Amino acid sequence: MSRTRPSRIRHTPRPRRTALAAGVAALALAVTGCGSASGSTDPAAGKDARVSVNLRGKQAKAGERVEVTVPEGRLAEVTVRDREGGELSGRVAKDGRRWTSDRVAAPGTTYEVKAEDDRGRSATHTFTTEAAGRVNKLTLAPGKGTTVGVAHPLSIVFDNPVKNKKAVERHLKVTTSDSTEGSWGWITDYSGKDRVDWRPKEFWKPGTKVTLDADLNGVDSGDGGGWFVRDYATSFTVGRDQKVEVDLDSKQLTLLRDGSAVRRVPMSAGTPGGDKASWGGVNVLMSKEGTIRMNSETVGLGDAYDKMVDHSMRLTWSGMYAHAAPWNAAYFGNTNHSSGCVGMSDGDAGWLYEAAQVGDPFVTKGSGHKGDADVGNGYGLWNLSWSDWQAKSALND
Questions:
Q1: Measured between alpha carbons, how far is residue 208 from residues 151, 265, 381 in Å?
Q2: How far from each other are the two terminal CA atoms of the chain, in whole angstroms?
Q3: pLDDT at residue 149 is higher than 60
Q4: Cα separation of 379 and 96, whole Å?
Q5: Does pLDDT of 301 surpass 70?
Q6: Which of 31, 187, 312, 389 is 20 to 30 A from 198 (CA-CA)?
Q7: Which domain holds residue 112?
Q8: How far apart are alpha carbons 234 and 287 in whole angstroms?
Q9: CA atoms of 168 and 163, how far apart (whole Å)
């Protein structure tokens, strides 16, 4: 940026000093008691700008916006950078006297503030924020660059508790290619951890591109949770319009694509009455796990089974799958006689495994199920009405 410098005229400092609020560092010719300050080394700049910065020293408070002010004149340019080259953008107030960063200062970070006023005078200040006593991290789904079915939400599971839900939610930005209407909702994950999901009002439209920017660096998650010390991002694309219908009355499973049936196969779901019944409502295909060992003791069903199972597609964290179940062949199409899963022949399960997308909804209807799975037991959020889901946003309190 080019700028005409003023003439090299020696300025005599004014005898009076502008009073500063407690805890604010003044940047002038002299170094302040905490932090450091220096004026321009260019004599053409006239004299040093008198600038105040609200954060100072080596134990400055994290999670605060950086504020730079001048008692006279107007701020022309302010830059705040950390040692890794990251920059805090900001805005100058209408009167030109105050610059405020758009984001807060992150914990355990050293920042250099450079300010210049409209008379070409400059000053520099350095401060370091206190380190985070505890760090919170998160896990995002879907994975970056993936293609998923129309029912897959954006889902964030936190390592530590989140008490400051409003503060966290305000830093989560969802962008879609078609301005999809949606809402965040806070729930408890099946693991017992705090979780926040973003779902559309209705299933996604095929081809929608979705981006999440979680600008959390420097946000305090509250008591027992700790600080976030980095930003997160993910993006995904919505694939084909597919859903799977599981009819407990006809004992048939149907794959629908664009609303039309592609194929219908006989199946056997969970035994009605008791813990072995299947979950009803809308569940979402969480993962395609292939051949896995299934042990009934891990889901609280005693020693009912312990075997290797092919073409396994997970629907809930509590152990409901759709999979191949050749040992149950006598019941396909006529009796629901499994321990809660949706079983099919090897051939039919293999076909569905190839055709299904992670994120496809599995809609279980008919009699004999044990109700809807809890909202955090997989992706059970589609079993809530739109208004009930919106009510789970921290910003709707």
A1: 12, 30, 20
A2: 47
A3: yes
A4: 50
A5: no
A6: 312
A7: 25-128
A8: 18
A9: 9
